[in-house]
Structures
1.
Amino acid sequence: MKKITLQQRRILLLLHIIFAAIMLGVQVAFIILGLTASVTDDADVLQSCYTIMHLLADTSVRASTIGTTITGIMLSVMTSWGLFRYYWIIAKEVLTLLAIGIGLIGMYEWTLRGLDHGTLTVHHTWLMIGIALQTISIVVMYILSVWKPGGKRKNPASL
């Protein structure tokens, strides 16, 4: 595949960073809303927290996860980084799969089920575990992007 110009790479990188920033911002909102839901005795506040989390899971989480994934793949394929040449990229790919599973499927389902007050505690526990795993995976992806540990693989695939 033909490599992109420096200007095109910068635009693609900017889009990737914007989508990643949205992901991190939404995670902060999930932490705040999840903790609020954990400590409130007010049914209206609890309902509001879950409604907002469900709305975010259905919109911002999906858009930012898809956008970050697509721009990340494009950056890997269209630049010299490649998909499998560096250990840090492979680690980010694994964490991306985790983020997709938790973000696109887990958060949506757990917040939807959390809106049913009869099973709130069970689903709230899973939601909080999902929020923690999602937050850790996003922070680790940021760390990998900055420090790029592990170096280049000895026998990388062509991609």
Note: The chain has a mean pLDDT of 90.
2.
Amino acid sequence: MTAPATPLAPATAALRARTAVHATFVLNGVFMSAWVSRIPSVRDTLGLSNGGMSLLLLAFSLGSVVAMPLAGAVVLRVGPARTVFLGAVAVAAGLAVVAASVDGAGLLAPAALGLFVAGAGTASWDVAMNVEGSAVERRLDRSIMSRFHAAWSLGTVVSAGLGVLLLRFGVPTWAHLAGVAVLAVAGTAVTTRSYLAGAAVPGEGRERPAGSITLRQAWREPRTLVIGVLVLCTAFVEGTANDWLALGIVDGHDAAHSVGVAGFTVFVVAMTVGRLSGPWLLETFGRVRTLRTSAAVAAVGIATFVLSPTVGVAMAGALLWGLGTALGFPTGMSAAGDQEVNAAVRVSVVSSVGYAAFLAGPPLLGLLADHVGVTTAVTAAAVAAVVGLFVASAAAPHAEGTALGSARRRPEGKLSS
């Protein structure tokens, strides 16, 4: 009598895992946005200049950069579920140290250590949830990674709004960060229970599965590295908007601060819409064509923003900028995870290359902006978008197993591994 239910079990497990991965992305976005909302408070409490706060924030970036190349090996050893949970525990521990250092003794060194640990935790969490998302794509035969990243954006928006309310009611930094720490641990403990069983974990006795590669070998694969460049370009384009779009409107058009924030809001909304539309676009037009078109739209949007004679035209540029940026990062992660046996190490490599843009991009653009102005400086993002257009062919489906089923797979040129 149970025989008819057996074929449904894998699909049911995949659907539960899909919901769980959505929730995990939301939680990660909630944490990131909560921390960002408290940066001004931390700066003022510690009595730091903007330059001093930049150095403190560098500790978080360094933690991420150190942990991300190793995260793939951790995922292979313990699986995505445990890696996400351990990453959340590290995030919680780091936030606890930051909260105690800032609101307690006002000590800079422990705060930097806490941020380093939190950065390492969120990097591991990030890689693992992308590996799991890639596995869910393969099980469901749908290109849905962009919707997972849209869930992350939703988490940041909700958390930012909550942060505004907490600040208005005078909730101290330690209480806010402690609450997020508890949510991170408790939330991931629940969501990861529905992850796919055995994803990315070696076989019995830790024997290496047939066709698997090591992390060192992944760093030497042309396709994987070029996908990393693609993600780096997209991350640079997105990071430029995050850091400089609002200032570009304010400085370039002598607009009020609120108008600059409105321009950034247009960008975020457009990017979220683009990510929600990602499955249909990717399955209709294929990865390479979609990515090339997206890169072209982003480049046109940035050029429109830079050359805009009015604020209204700048807003239109921000809209195109957001739409064009939406799919590069999540689709790069999907491409890296095409082959299940090597998804963890390849996603780790691609993440490491891509996140370099978030570390190096803001200070480099800041230096350029000092010489040519913010609006002109963001032209560098248009150059990155064009580079992304030319390397998009690397994201073509891998020869062995992809998120797109063979019936829907479109002929796309690709670089060999």
Note: The chain has 17 helices and no strands.
